[in-house]
Amino acid sequence: MGTLLASCGRSEAPAEPRPAAEAHDPAVHAAPMTAGWSVTDGIETPESVYADAASGFIFTSQIAGAPDGRDGNGRIVQLGGDGHVVSSTWVTGLNAPKGLRSHNGTLWTADLDEVVGIDIATATVTSRTKIDGAQFLNDVAVGSDGTVYVSDMMANRIYAVRDGKAAVFAEGEQLEWPNGLLVDGARLIVGGWGKPKPDFSTDVPGRLFALDLQTKQKAPITPKPFANIDGVEADGRGGYIVSDYLAGKVMQVSAKGEVRELRQFKPGSADIGFVAAGNVLLVPHMNENTVASYDLSDVLE
Prior knowledge:
Elements: E1 34-39, E2 46-51, E3 58-62, E4 74-79, E5 85-94, E6 97-103, E7 106-111, E8 114-119, E9 124-130, E10 137-142, E11 148-152, E12 157-162, E13 165-171, E14 178-184, E15 187-192, E16 208-212, E17 218-220, E18 229-234, E19 240-244, E20 249-253, E21 259-264, E22 273-275, E23 280-285, E24 290-295
Antiparallel strand pairs: 1-24, 2-3, 3-4, 4-5, 6-7, 7-8, 8-9, 10-11, 11-12, 12-13, 14-15, 15-16, 16-17, 18-19, 19-20, 20-21, 22-23, 23-24
């Protein structure tokens, strides 16, 4: 297995910056970002991209239809560390898979109203946990004990899944319609979307905040709402990298809650991945049916 995320020849960025920022966006500055590889083969409505350090593979979830479609067209694509397609049909028969995380050889994904576990070594679905009452399961995060946390944005709820059983971890409007999740030590980092209208736009976007995994107490990271947050990743510097799906932006949030723009893409920058060891950002450009990598070495603070 080669080094995860070595550069390769296909280096065009899939999107040009959008010209204007939304009124609620923070005072930020765009920074140069080096484009790496991009892939379109086998990519169809990619929602999430995730680099599994243990196997060296990159996985990306393909909705391949409507985000809420129960059509069996959803699948997981397996990429090599350099972005080449290993298998465009690594796992098939899903509906609309979204967030991805791995733990102890299992890749976890949220698929509408169930959490699916996949054995990475064999590409075999090993567990399906159906969550009664779930409306729109979105992102997943995994604790050190193997507990899988999954956001239900439309229900304003976060579930905890353990040993095939699901329970409500937190719920209510204080969750700001949660989308992106990340376990960071003893905290669950949550990216709020904001209360969505029928077209998923918001009058007030979401903030980045943390929930204590034991007490569930909420602690804001960004003091003000600033984005319709989709992906959340640790930046390796004590802060976070987040994506704004509707605006297409990728931003860095410092440990103090300061927000700076890293790159403006077209709308549809969904659940990003990040490899801190190489400062490599992975972006599923959902509306463009493209997954691409970018070197952030010169832009992160």
